[in-house]
Amino acid sequence: MSLDAKRVAFLTAKARAIRREIITMVYRANSGHVGGSLSATDLLVALYHEVMRHDPRHPGWPDRDRFVLSKGHCTPVLYATLADAGYFPREDLATFRRVGSHLQGHPYQPKTPGVDASTGTLGLGLSTACGMALAARLRGAPHYTYVLCGDGEQQEGQIWEAAMFAHKYRLDHLIAFTDRNRLQTDGGTEDVMPLDPLVDKWRAFGWQSWEIDGHDFEAIIDAINAATSSSSGRPTMIVANTIKGRGVSFMENVASWHGTPPNEHEHALALEELA
């Protein structure tokens, strides 16, 4: 079912607000990963505000859908989304990466409300999600496990071991996204270690896989609906084409904004563009 214009406008406004929070969090901490957080914002907004079954009042609700941030360095987008959804006060975002804060540079499941898995070592998040999805299958639980992977981390063998595992055990309640912004720390993904044809690779590993515009809310929701209504018995990988640094003109498609915090002038310019 497609979204109506009013709902698209709501999600668009949420994404803009969360992008502002991302910029300010990284600026205040003078540390963090802004580019990949901005590229993934629309995906997380769609999941938390339109798709996933979850309850901020009860973060440990057994029947909730799970979310795993496999690209664990991009916590600014996760924390801003969780705060917006009501898992903890928005004021906590000001403590990002501070000593003693529950909002550390990588997700820490025991300490942060709404975080379902501790991640950070690239390539391992998908394996974690596979284990969670298999556990749900064994318990007869109906919930879905969603996971967001970076494209750069798919240069690691661990991802493809997880891909084989998910196909073997027919984890059809596992839905993954690739944040396909085509940039990583060292430059373009296709220069460092080419991934294309990425959709065909996932299909070859037994997954149902589609390619979408990762900044189009209707496309995101339609792809998830296709995955949840499928009777193929296969896991799903949605390759979402995105723009690193999305929403801030001088950050877009610039590899150096992978892990560089904005200075005071850049922070002000970014917020002005996102106003």
Task: Record keyword descriptors for this entry.
alpha/beta; 12% strand; 5-stranded parallel sheet; two-stranded antiparallel ribbon; 9 helices; 275 residues; Rossmann fold; single chain
Quick structural overview:
The chain is an alpha/beta fold and 275 residues long. Helices cover 42% and strands 12% of the residues.
| CATH architecture classification | 3-Layer(aba) Sandwich
Beta-strand proportion: 5-15%
The strands making up the biggest β-sheet line up spatially as: 1-2-3-7-6
The CATH homologous superfamily corresponds to Thiamin diphosphate (ThDP)-binding fold, Pyr/PP domains
Estimated helix fraction: 40-55%
* Discrete helix count: 9
Stated plainly, the CATH topology is called Rossmann fold
Number of domains: 1
Count of DSSP E strands?
Answer: 7
* Terminal residue distance: 31 Å
* Average pLDDT: 97
> Can you tell me the residue ranges where pLDDT is under 50 for at least 5 consecutive residues?
none
Q: Structural class, please?
A: alpha/beta
Envelope shape: globular
Order of helices and strands: HHEHHEHEEEHHEHEH
- Rg over CA atoms: 17 Å
| Main pleated-sheet profile | 5 strands, parallel
Please write the CATH class name. Answer: Alpha Beta
